[in-house]
Amino acid sequence: MLELAILGFLKEGPAHGYELRTKVAALTGHVRPVADGTLYPAIKRMAGAGWITRRDEPGAAAAPRRVLYLAEAGERELERRLRDPDPLDLSDENRWFTLLAFLRHLDDPAAQAGVLRRRLAFLEQPASFFYDGDRPMRAEEFGDPFRQGLLSIARATSRAELAWLHATIDSLDRAAGP
Amino acid sequence: MLELAILGFLKEGPAHGYELRTKVAALTGHVRPVADGTLYPAIKRMAGAGWITRRDEPGAAAAPRRVLYLAEAGERELERRLRDPDPLDLSDENRWFTLLAFLRHLDDPAAQAGVLRRRLAFLEQPASFFYDGDRPMRAEEFGDPFRQGLLSIARATSRAELAWLHATIDSLDRAAGP
DNA sequence: CATCGATACATCGGAGCCGAGGTATCTCGG
DNA sequence: CCGAGATACCTCGGCTCCGATGTATCGATG
């Protein structure tokens, strides 16, 4: 998830680590702030894989900045991850939203629509949160307000996203169509 | 997150591992299915910590079942985790929803309201997903539909939860109040 | 009566992530 | 001119998690 965010932001221009830290924190931080001990090892890892290149930037800043650029292998990796997402990227909200934030870098409406359709298929499979033996429970059945709230919030979220998915898939299809 | 779910479900009665697997998958599976390689080590870990006890159940099932019971230390651990949640449990959606599912086991409306208030405080801090340098961007500004969708879905979710939080805190306060 | 699928439990390697800590420089207020 | 705070980078230990793989039994299907 972090790696995708780094690839996506670097696609929009070079940045140094601390700058990425701010951007990633803004994007995913409303849910889970990124720790330095997560970010910098990720950068190192990705540089080792050849996805990004580092150049030392002299002067200017307080501490020596190491500017990060997306390498060609990194572009390919980003494209690959967007076009054919890991199953977890489609089911886990955090990962999915991260993917969504960079889906615009996939320069192909048909492929974009394909990704949205896969998320749609996931969202449309009926989910019951609680069971009484084999029987799925309905919200009205559990007396406590917490599980009722849980269900109603989850449903509101789901409705909002489903509506958006349908509308966006339609418009992408029109853009890709004959 | 998994441990909290296991503690919570066992609070509602004993179960064997495979049964837990189903319940946990129903609760968190809409987002992130649980793998056997995650569940069984967690059970082992928690048995080692003295939170749950295992008894072999003879006969009946195909394979030998090991029934799990919540031990006293486990009850205390559950109470502790609900009453004073880890910061990550308040920010990460997955973790938060799991916590919410078992908040009813905290037998104290004032404490429950306290937990909701902490989530409220987190949700109320303004979140901007994207920045143009230092300046937070508004949804209308980024042309691509994906980030617009991301923002509108996130806001719909946030609105739904905020409304529920306020209403529920009020009613808990009335229940706890004089 | 043999095979397949579901039930049920378990282990292993590898990976990402968190939290805490550490280093160094620059700027600004007192 | 001194110290506090922001900037900027990095490492380490420990934990949880994933995915693959393995074992064994029961019931139903053909």
Automatic annotation (TrEMBL), chains A, B:
InterPro entries assigned to the protein according to its UniProt record, in alphabetical order: Metal_resp_DNA-bind_regulator, Tscrpt_reg_PadR_N, WH-like_DNA-bd_sf, WH_DNA-bd_sf
Gene3D superfamilies (UniProt xref): Winged helix-like DNA-binding domain superfamily/Winged helix DNA-binding domain (1.10.10.10)
Residue span(s) of domain Transcription regulator PadR N-terminal: 6-79
The species this protein was found in: Nonomuraea montanisoli
One Pfam family cited in the UniProt record for this chain: PadR
Protein name: PadR family transcriptional regulator
